[in-house]
Amino acid sequence: MKHLLTLALTLFAVAAFAQNPVLGKWKTIDDETGRIKSVVEVTERYGKIYGQVIELFRLPEEDQNPICDQCEDDRKDQPALGMEIVRDMVPLSTLEWGDGTICDPKNGKIYDCEMWFEEDNMDELKVRGYIWILFRTQTWLRQ
Fold first, then answer.
1. Which residues pair with 103 in a beta bridge?
2. DSSP letter for each residue of 27-79
3. Alpha-carbon distance 79 to 81, whole Å?
4. What is the per-residue pLDDT for 1?
5. pLDDT per residue over 43-66, tens digit each?
6. Could you tell me which residues come within 8 angstroms of residue 51 by beta carbon, excluding any fewer than 6 positions away?
7. Whole-structure pTM value
8. pLDDT of residue 7 exceeding 50
C-alpha cells in the first residue's frame, strides 16, 4: 500500500510539472492605454502553442463585434472574437516560446512573436510582436 501511494504521488508530481505553464486563459492588456482588451485562451497542438480570442472588452462607443477586414490571410473578414491570433509558437526553453506569429485584428498585421515569463512570475506573460528591430511588448495577466 505504501508503494502504491508513493507511485500515485510521483505520477501526480510528474503530470503537474509536465503541464506547460503558458497554457490557460490570459487577459490582454493594451500597452498604450493600459485597458484590458480581451481574453485569449492559449492551447497546445502537436507541440506548438496557439492563442484564440474568447472574450472582448469593448467600450460602448466601439464596434462590439469587430471584423478583421484588413487581414490578408485566412483571417480576412473574420470576427476578432473567436480568432486565432497566436500561431505556431515553439518552446525555446521551459519559460520562453518563439518562432511563431501574432496577428493584430485591429490593423490586420501579422508580426513575429515571442513570449516569456520573467523572474518566475507565472501570472504575467510577456508577449512581444516584432518586425526586424521594431517591437511592442504587452503584459498578459493570467485569468
1. 110
2. EEE-TTT--EEEEEEEEEETTEEEEEEEEE---TTS-SS-B-TT--STTTT-B
3. 5
4. 52
5. 999 999 999 999 999 999 999 999
6. 26, 40, 41, 42, 43, 84, 85, 86, 102
7. 0.85
8. no
| Per-residue pLDDT tens over the stretch 22-36 | 999 999 998 888 999
Cα 18–Cα 21–Cα 25 angle in degrees, nearest 5: 130
What domains appear along the chain, each with residue ranges and CATH number? 22-142 (2.40.128.520)
> Cell match 485566412: residue?
74
Query: For residues 139 and 63, what is the distance between their CA atoms, to the nearest angstrom?
Result: 24
Q: What is the mean pLDDT of residues 88-95?
A: 96
- Which amino acid appears at position 49 of this protein? I
